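Intended use. Records such as the Glycerophosphoryl diester phosphodiesterase membrane domain-containing protein entry shown here are meant for training and evaluating sequence-to-structure methods. They are not intended to support clinical decisions.
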Amino acid sequence: MRIFDLAFEALAAVFTYFQIVLRLAVPLAAVVLVFETYSRLTHPQMSGIAGPGGLPAAPEPPAILVMISLVATIALTAVYLNVVIGWHRFLVRGEAPWATGFKLGGREFRYFYNSIAIGIIALAVVLPCVFVIERLVGGIGAGLLSQALSFAATAAIIAIVLRLSPVLVDVALERKPVGLVQSWKRMAPLAGQIAGVGIIVAVLAMASAGIDRFVVALPIGLFFKAALTATNATAMLFLAGMTTTAAVTLAYLRVMPPPASGKGGNRVVAANE
C-alpha cells in the first residue's frame, strides 16, 4: 500500500463524518477560539502578531485572571479528552457523539497520563537528534535548512506518537491496554503509512505557519490579526487532532482484526476484550 494511504483514509473519515466531527468538537473549538484570540491580544509579541515595529509590553494580568485561565485550561483539557475519546468510539463502535454524556473519571485520567507519557517519549527521542544536527551544522537560522529540520521533527514526533497510541484506543474503548511496548510492536506493519501521516500533518503545520505570516503582513488592525491567526490555529488544532486520532484508530482496526462484528461508521468493531 502507498505511504499516504492511511493519512488520506483518516482525512476522508474526518470529512465523511464531518457532521459528527462538528457535533463533537464545535463547542470546544468556539471556546478555544476565544481564548486564542484573547491570548494573542494580550501577548502580541509572543504570538508574533506585533509586526516588525513591535508594541509596548502588555502589563502582567491580575492574579484572578491567571487563576481563571488555569481553571479554564483544565476544563478545556477535560472536554478535549471527551472529544477525542468520543471520536475513537464512533469510528470503532458507531457510538453517537456524547452518547454517554460528559465524563471525567478513570478512563479520562488514564487517557490523559498515557498521552503525556507518549508525548514525552516522542520529544525525548526527537529533540536530542535536532540538537545534535544543529551542532553539527554550526547553528541554524531561519533559512531553508531550519524549515526542513522543523518539518522533519514534526513528522517524526507525530509518527512516534501514532506508533505508541494503540494503548489510547484501548483506554477509550475501556479495554485492557496493551501497553506502550506492545503498541509499538503491533503497529510495525504500518510503520511506512504512519510516517506518511506524520508527513501530512507536518505539511498542514507548515501551511498554517504560512497563513499566519501572510495575516501578520496584512495592513489590518491588531484585533483582526489576533482573530484571524487564532482561527487558523484553532482550525489546525482540530484538523490535525481529529485526523491523527482517526489515523491511529483506523490503524488499530487493521492490526487488531475483530473476531466478531458490530459496526462503527463503516468500520467493524475491533476487540481484545
